Amino acid sequence: MERNLRLYPYFQVARSLLFWLPVFFLYFSAHLPADQVLLLEAVYYAGIVALEVPSGYLSDRIGRRPTLIMASGAWLLGYLVLAMAPSLEVFVVGQLLLAAGMAFNSGTDGALLYDSLATLEREDELADHEGRAQARGLLAMGFAALVGGGVGLIDLRLGHVLSAVSGAMALGVALAMVEPPAPDGRAHAPLRQLGSVVRHLRQPALVWVFLFAVVMTVFNHVPYMLGQPYLAAMLGDEAMTSTPVVSGLLMALKMTMAALASRASAPLAAKFGPAAVLLGAMVVQGLVIGSMGASLHPAVLALLLLSSMPGAVSGPVQLAVILPRVDGRIRATYLSIQSLAGRLSFSAALAVAAMVVGEASPMPHPAMATLCFGAVVGLAVMALVLLPWSRVVRDRIEA
User: Fold this and answer.
1) Using CA atoms, how far apart are residues 213 and 211, in angstroms rounded to an integer?
2) 8 A C-beta contact, residue 79 and residue 161
3) Which entry of 67, 78, 124, 167 is 20 to 30 Å from 20 by CA?
4) In Å, how far from its chain's centre is CA 31?
5) Which is nearest to 305 in space by CA: 247, 235, 351, 234?
6) Rounded to two decimals, what is the model's pTM?
7) CA dihedral (160, 365, 314, 107) positive or negative
8) What's the confidence (pLDDT) of residue 399?
9) How many CB atoms neighbour CB 118 within 10 A?
């Protein structure tokens, strides 16, 4: 199990080398109108929705290591397909493969870490290990953003070509891991497994975190989706030549700050409690989204640097609240169902956004402002819903 603890950060680094991230919207937009780009993202999330729960169940049934191997293989194939001739049909196939990789990884990586720590009777170290691994992954993502933005000036497809290499690296690390024992046994039959998840949701703390996770899955993706078109609108006539580089630099700085935030997540939760940390993440993301909608100005870039911090802080804290409260044989299934709810909500939000922005390419700032205004209102409403009963998430997290 010590081997898994050593390899886990390297797996997070390999899967986080997303060289395509600073240029994917530009790459798709170079070949498709804005509404098809958003619908393409909706296809991606719909693919995850279709596979999320089956993949989590598979992880609980056949094991963590085989599921991570399948995830890495799907990433590798997906990146290669997306780097092929750019057409809507090819993009759809590539997006669905990436969706499969994300679905198979979702919940399984954290479950493998917790199971490995539990075998060593070191479960209390989860938030710290997850925070450190996530911090390295975010730094790797920042490095990949710099490189991806640079090579995007040569050819926007190169981001996916380089990402295929990172997919191969993740596959190698997954193959080197060992399967942790399952003291609670393997997964139940499908319907019984689902019933067990529902019974666990009788715990108020799990319900609170479940709602938080669904809400933030949607709103953490708003700056991610609108960041590149926002830059393109701000840069104007220079967009085609400078947006990839500026986007890559912004992404690198953003990931560096997120890495610091992730590393601080366990100490913050130990000091203030998990509910306070999670609600604080909501407030920060609301400020970022609101600033994007309010003004098309270079000063907003300073706030955009904060957009990855809410997810980086909340991820380890959520796992530290959830996993000790969930039986081992349903851990990946539970996390997959939670993720499914969030991604299904975001997929629906993307479909609505596509109708709002229409076919305009590039996306104008007034359309972005409309989307941001709606997001801020939704985020404020959910914060007011969660705040009164945040005391149910009262357990301190070990630093």
Assistant:
1) 5
2) yes
3) 67
4) 25
5) 247
6) 0.77
7) negative
8) 43
9) 19
